Each structure stands twice: as structure tokens, then as C-alpha cells.
Amino acid sequence: MLTTVTLLVRRKNTEWRTESKRAEMLCPLRTSDLGFLLMLTVFFVADSGNSCMDERQIMQNNSSPPEEVNTTLSVEMGSTAVLCCSSVPLTTLELITWKITLRGQPICMRAYKKQTNETSNNCTDDGITWVSRPDLSPHLQINAVAVAHDGNYTCEAATYSGYFQHHYELQVLVRPEANIFLSKNQTAVCEAVAGRPAARISWIPSGHCVTMKEGHSNGTVTVRSACRYPDSNVSAVTCLVSHSTGNRSLSEVFLPSGISESKDLYIKFIIPSICILLIIVGSVLFFKIKVFRQCKLKKSAANPVVEEDEMQPYASYTEKNNPLYDTISKI
Prior knowledge:
Distance between the termini: 163 Å
InterPro entries: CD200R, Ig-like_dom, Ig-like_dom_sf, Ig-like_fold, Ig_sub, Ig_V-set
Pfam families: V-set (PF07686)
Number of helices: 3
GO molecular function: signaling receptor activity
Protein name: Cell surface glycoprotein CD200 receptor 1
Keywords: Disulfide bond, Glycoprotein, Membrane, Receptor, Signal, Transmembrane, Transmembrane helix
């Protein structure tokens, strides 16, 4: 059953106006004699399509903005965030000041003074800028939101008729990396790595599960859940990862116990044996090749090849005896 949401807004003339938004059931409105300032808190997830109420919309609504508004804004890392200042007409603005306090950092300010058309800024983060020119829009924009942008942002708008304030508590969301794998003894492991805030993990079907969390220095958290299924009838499991940035489901199929054991045996014994055998065969072949080369070199050294020297065409001759010349000599 829905309940009534009641807003009390104080006008600048100190009169009270009651605005009620009704759903299915009306609730009686109770007010005290003492005046109080409404602290309106809004929870939502922002995206790049954020828009702020401009002067034209204010005039159409014929309403004055509350003097103080508190907003809790959740933005996913990497997106663009627009922080709206108080929705007051630009024509009445005199001074706009954004006070920014990031986690673990000192306060810094961006300001615009209409009378002198001057801006001031002592913030060092270049990713935090005006949406456009401050004389055209008092709103703030954060480009490529990072974890370091987590913190408090306050817009203070001073006008002729009053002082308005819009406070933001910015929470940066980081989408975790989800994965699932099988371990020993019919156990499945599901991980949600480096999420902000920590993700939630559940299983279908449920088993004997143990969940652990590990925090990191940047504020992200890794969640690891291991589920054991001793019942051999479970053939497949599904891991459900729930997170503010979106939900995911991952599935894994168990191998039959016989196949699983054979696979473990193959990995533990057969593969190492094959590796050892290959090493032995390679060593024997290397040794044989080495011995063969040494024998061939020794044989070549024992039987040297003598090359004949090149002979000159007149270096040798053949003597022949002629009987005719021998007879003449004797006479």
C-alpha cells in the first residue's frame, strides 16, 4: 500500500504552504505550532540525461523553490553528472557559490558574481565545470565521473529576495566484473570483482556456500562466493550478481563425476609423463647427433686428402732410346 508524501515549503514571506502528493491512500497532515525548515532528501541514480528546471518552468509552475534541499545522488563511474543549483530565476540571482568537498580533500569553491560578471575558482579538478557560462546557467557538470569525485557538493544562491541552498551527497558507483568457474569436488566459484558498493551474490540452486569480501584501497570491494554441490544430480548452476549498476546471471555446467576424475587424472599424470618422455627422446637424439659429428671429424683427420701440385708443362720429360742413333754413334 502506498503512503502519502507530504512536503512543507516555507515561502519567503514566512507563510506556510502545504503540498500533498497522493497515491492510493490519504494520510492526515500534522503540523506543529513551531515553524521548521523542510529538508527534502531525494534518492536516485543519475545518468547523462540529467536536466534542471529552468526559469521558464518555474514561471509555468508558479511556485517558489524551497530554501534548502538535500539530495543523495548515485552516479556510475565514467558517466556525466549534472548537479542542479536552486531553481530560482536567473534575473534575481546576485551570487552563485559552489562549495565542493571531495572525500579526504579540503574544501574548494567555484563562484560567480553577477554585478561584476566575475568568476573565481580554486578547485584543481578540471573535470568539474559549469554546464555552460555561469551567467546563463548556475548548474555544475562533472565529466567522466571517477571514484575521486565522491563527496559533498553545495550550491548557494543569493538573490534579492532570499538565500537558497541545494546540497548533494554524490556517491560514485563502480560496476563489478563478474565471472564464474568450476573448482574441485563439485564446487562452483562466482566472483564480482572491484565493485562499489559491494555486490550481492546468490545461487540457483542453493548449495553449501561460503562468501568472502575483500576491500581495495580505492573503495571498491571484491566479493567471492564458493558453492559446493555434493549431490551428483545437480548438473548446472547459475550465479546471480546483484548491483546498483545492474544485475547479471552467469551459468556453469558440471561434468559427470567419472569424466571429471578422468580429466583430473589426465592433467596430473598423463601430461607430465608425456613431457618427461619427450625430454628423454630429445636428449637421446641430441646425444646421437653429437657423437656422429665427432666420429666424422676424427675419420677425416686420419685420412687426409693430398692434393697434387700443379706441374709446369716443362717440369718433366720421358727419355726414349733410338737404335738408329746409337749405331751411328758407334761408327
